[in-house]
Prior knowledge:
Elements: H1 3-25, H2 33-57, H3 59-66, H4 69-85, H5 102-125, H6 131-159, H7 161-183
Helix pairs in contact: 1-2, 1-5, 1-6, 1-7, 2-5, 2-6, 4-5, 4-7, 6-7
Amino acid sequence: MSIVELFMIAIGLAMDAFAVSLAAATSGVTKNSRAVFRLSFHFGLFQFLMPVVGWYMGSRLVSAISAYDHWIAFTLLAIIGLRMIRPDRSTHEDARTDPSRGWNLVLLSVATSIDALAVGFSLAMIEVAIWAPSILIGVVTASLSLLGIFIGDKLGKKFGRRMEIVGGILLVLIGGKILYSHIVLGVGSNGPGM
């Protein structure tokens, strides 16, 4: 497999993380460099780790997850998206869900990297060594996540709370796109409806 092919795979896998980073940054809570680092680092780390796990675990784990991985991704993205759309009314009005901390960060990282598990398995099947592709996938994802945060931060500053709502809706739509592509189009599964 050529470096160009691997780079295209890396960009394809990173697009969900880019879109989620953009949506998360619109909330305005990723203003400091630590939050930006946490978000982009964890997205890159999970995108690096998932192909390695898929490569080592083989068909048993991938086939067990492929029947419902799209539901997992949709559920995780929908939970975070709905939290952004409708923040907890019992907290202070300015308190917002921070997508760069705690379980929110873990849920987003897992949701955006599940497809990388299947890519790792596929690379094992065609006997491609896993470390170089995984590193490339992780670096590309972290880089595109940084770009998404930068763009989302600019939009959030300009449009305020409206962009946080748009960001939450975007997360739910990304989850819906994953669900649609797996169920209707049969992408990333053993066939349509799986």
